[in-house]
Give the backbone structure.
Amino acid sequence: MKDKVLFQIKRLTHKMYFNIEEDGDNFIFHLKKGVPFSTSYLIFKHKKTGKRISKEIKSSKAVISLDELNELDEYGRFNVFVKVLVMNKIFIQRIKFVFQNSNKMIFDKKNHRILESLQSKYFNLSFIYKPAEFVATATEFKKENNQILLKGEIEAYDIDFNSVEILVALTSQWRYIPCNWEKDGKTIKFDANIDFEIEEEDIGNRHYPRIRLKKDDIVIDNARIKAKNITINGIDDKYLDYIENFKASEETIPEEEAKGLDENEYCSMLCIASDSNLIFEILNKRDINRMMKNEKRLLEHFSTLENKKLVFFESFDGKFYAGQSRYIYEKLLELGYDKYFDFIWSYSGDLDIPGNPIITDRDSRNFKKLLKDCEYWITNINFPNLKDDEYIVHLQSTYGTPYKCMGTDVKTNSKKIRKDRINIGPGKLNYLLTANDFSKEVFKSAFDYDGKIINKGYPANDIFYQNNAKKIEEIKKDLNIPKDKKIILYAPSFRDVELKDEKERNYKLLLDLKALHENLSDEYVLIARLHPLLLKDLEIEDGMREFVMDLSDYDEITDLYLISDALITDYSSAFFDYAHSKKPILFFVPDKEKYLGFRGLYSQVEENLPGPEIYDSQELIDAIRNIDDASEEYKGKYEAFYDEYCNLGHGNSAKDVIDIIFKDVGK
């Protein structure tokens, strides 16, 4: 109990933040969120040297002065921490950045130095202390006559100069642009018209424009341009404007014409203020809209006084918006749980996720920070190990009922396979989701798991018990599949028997695509859905592209289950889910003897397959041509298989899981 209390105290310190007030040569830190512990300190710590200033927080307030920083005699970055002494324990935590603390700045005019706030890459509060002769701030940024009009002000010390220039340094160009300028008391006002000629190599790059002062040909100093107090059309301060003025050819493309282009051919420029500085970023138009929406959500999360609790979702390392995670999430939205929670998705794909979640991914700078902020995790593979994660409700939603041996059940001489075996010990999970009684027992044994199991069926399979006629029609239309063609789905398992090393995964397609094309293309379309672990794309000859569709990167395999008329698989768990549809299943296993010797199969399943095993391409072609005969032959086995492995859920799995995981929410 004491450990849990200490953990909650740690979380409280993690969520503390301050509003900063500039007062002469001082920064006053006012505690605005968090418990004002009786003994607590604000710490300014130099990132490289470790030198620090420690000030006690009294009456929810602490003061840092320039005199104290000058005594340290250190330029560079200072990170800000809070130290709390409670229950004979010391807690030290970085202070998080909130947007109202952007652009906080003190000018040390005597020593020509600046101390200014900034947001670290992990959304923490930092300060930079550096020498400077002047500060330049943008006051206006807008599109005007196919150019960018940039206006601003310079606050300078006693500098003798006679020209002001803006540096533009995109990949495709590097030039200084002269500015108009005039003195207005102690302030220098400047403006310039910037004409960008964007090339393909500029797309996706960021550029920090700089301004410099010169005396004749001598550069006195240069600095990044601040972006303070600029708001355009009600867009959040962090987003100043975006300019639709990029070209895919020699001429600018009008909006109405651009709608028909590939999104990567029509680009826009986003000008944002990050770390208090102006940034030009070249993106395609769709990515800009998504980025703006998501950054606004991140800003709301990191700067809101009272956040809702957070639920974190991920499927297959964030590569897909799919699986149990997706259907649990969408059911939460349907049931109105967004009243109680904010949702985060780890996702690197292109789909627009409903419900306005925060989006991150495993390569994002904020991934682990957001993960730590969450009270719930829902995933179908492993998350990174994080300290104190035992206090987070973690649902391992899994995917598939095992046919090939799993975990410690794999009997192999391969050192690599043995090394990769997964054991889920106590404290790692709160709940494990299973699709049926068989997988419940297998997962307990193969993964050495003795925690709580939710054996309610898979939420992703709820869809089989709904009216899907309209959905099927829409999916086929989106995939441009002719209405007169039947669909075969080929979903083979990953063969780690062919794994050469950790970095390369080889896979030889066992299907004879050419033979299938010659014999079946008049009647069928073949959709290939290879395993997510396969890195290489399927090679399809040009003449077969109307017959074979590689949809290995299609997010939701359940969509492909719905639209297909039959499934070809081997040792994949896919057929357990597909059996909910009661449509024909064929097992193409020409390498079965080799596979059995390397990895092994669960005999209980092997003896009760709901379809024929097929060992060569001609036999497969004949089975597809006579698919009704195969269905009739295996009717009894299929029904028994359905009763054994598909007997749970039937449209209610997502709701059942939510009732268990979130049973106390809203009460």
Summary: The radius of gyration is 30 Å. The CA atoms of residues 34 and 300 lie 17 Å apart.
